Amino acid sequence: AQESAAAEVTSRIESMKRAAAANDVAKAQEALARIRTLQPDNPFLAGTGPQLLANAYLGQATDAMRRGRFQSAADTLARGLKALGNRDDLRQAKARYDLVADAMKARASGVSSADLSRLRQQLARVQKDDPDALKALESDLKLRGQLQQGSLSALLDSLKPSQPPAAPSAAAPVAAPPSAAPGATPVTPAGVPTHP
């Protein structure tokens, strides 16, 4: 029984490597789960296995980004973080992809001053965390015609905050009826008795 389990683990490791290389997250995750069930103390589970699965998530997100599916790319990385825990590689990539998704959405539908300020802060954090990865992402987006401005900073600079809807002005005071000229007889609507 142990020999057949060991043979299956070996087979599953190879299967996971192929699935990860193809960015097939579902198959890679399934293989990793099966290895965990068969040999919970296998050294593959401590390093190589999770890294391969993270690479599959990263690859799948990159594919989505390249197809212009910016939010889908960020969502893929969120699923990777949920499956693998707080990994720096996934967290930093998600921060970059969230920024791109938010910036592209703002470019398409407008942005408020507060949202533009938030995007600039988001960009500053991403630049600080991994400037080289940001440059590579921007270069890839530019090459594919998805970032005509050349950088996310230039894209944000090109955005004009939408003006908030004008606040309703205070209602104009209702004009008081003109006062009767001195000596004029007050006019009373018909049917309303006047009291002297």
Structural class: mainly alpha
Average pLDDT confidence is 86
Rounded Rg: 32 Å
β-strand percent reads under 5%
Percent helix: 55-70%
* SSE order, one letter for each helix or strand: HHHHHHHH
Total beta-strand segments: 0
Biggest beta sheet summary: none
Distance between the termini: 116 Å
Number of helices: 8
Shape: elongated
Low-confidence stretches are none
What does this structure look like?
- This protein has 196 residues and is mostly helical.
- It has helices at 2-21, 25-38, 48-66, 70-84, 88-109, 113-129, 131-143, 152-158.
- The mean pLDDT is 86.
Summarize the structure.
With 196 residues, this protein is mainly alpha-helical. It has 8 helices and no strands.
